[in-house]
Design a protein that fits this description.
38% helix, globular, 4-stranded antiparallel beta sheet, 6-stranded mixed beta sheet, 255 residues, Rossmann fold
């Protein structure tokens, strides 16, 4: 089976600092893939290289076999790779519905002139986007919250709204950067259920998360970074027993 996303010997340097060194991994369609490691291990740097926010110093990144390293972020989204961020980046003074509709713009065809003139095609497309945004709010558990300002939603609801906005771009692959950070155990379990629901809907997930228990109970495969290098990759059972992982991240002795 061909990989949906492949990372081949990617390195990223900031001046004399090597943030990533020869990292390779592959994400298969239909799986939940976890990326863990200590603070400063290079996880978010790798996400930023994958999604076009950073250029790579060397190596290749392919989405559905197509090279995307150093592509513009909007081009990567158009190809079906969306993401959320570690720090919430919503438009706080816009409604939840409007935030999701922003995500739909990458899939609409109305230009500036059409938006100003408000022709039949423009109006129909806007109505379709509005309806799809409502459906996505319901999918992530925010039905009835469409008219609430994003900035007035609870922290957990804002996290869900970010996911709905990313889903509005129609991704094949969704990367989530610490999506349950700051949540209580009940909220984390509910988010885990949402991630499984996303996979069941045909969306492949790539997950950075410090909650090792969640990752090990949710992910099909896991990669571990330490000081910018991949030190392990495999099923959760294999990774948890890896001596290098235990020493670098998990702590304690193998079970």
């Amino acid at each position: 089976m061909a990989a949906l996303l492949s990372v081949d010997r990617v390195s990223k340097r900031f001046g004399g600092l090597a943030a990533l060194e020869d990292v390779s991994l592959s994400v298969m369609a239909g799986e939940i893939y976890g990326l863990i490691g200590p603070n400063g291990a290079g996880k978010t740097t790798l996400f930023n290289c994958m999604t076009g926010l950073y250029t790579v110093s060397s190596g290749a990144i392919r989405l559905l076999g197509q090279p995307v390293q150093n592509s513009k972020p909007h081009r990567i989204v158009e190809l079906g790779f969306a993401r959320t961020f570690q720090n919430i980046r919503l438009f706080s003074n816009m409604t939840a519905l409007e935030n999701v509709m922003v995500g739909r713009h990458i899939r609409t065809r109305t230009g500036v002139v059409g938006a100003v003139l408000r022709g039949p095609f423009s109006c129909a497309e806007e109505q379709a986007s509005r309806q799809r945004a409502r459906e996505l709010l319901g999918f992530v558990g925010l039905a009835g919250k469409g008219q609430a300002l994003a900035g007035h939603l609870s922290y957990g609801a804002q996290r869900r709204l970010e996911i709905a906005r990313a889903l509005a771009t129609e991704p094949k692959l969704l990367a989530l950067d610490e999506p349950v950070a700051g949540m209580n155990p009940s909220e984390r379990r509910e988010m885990g259920d949402l991630f499984r629901k996303l996979r069941d809907a045909g969306i492949t997930l790539l997950l950075i998360e410090h909650d090792v228990k969640l990752v090990m109970g949710l992910c099909d495969r896991v990669a571990v970074l330490d000081y910018g290098r991949k030190i392990a990759e495999g099923t959760p059972e294999v990774v948890q027993r890896d001596a290098a992982v235990i020493e670098a991240y998990l702590g304690g002795e193998p079970a």
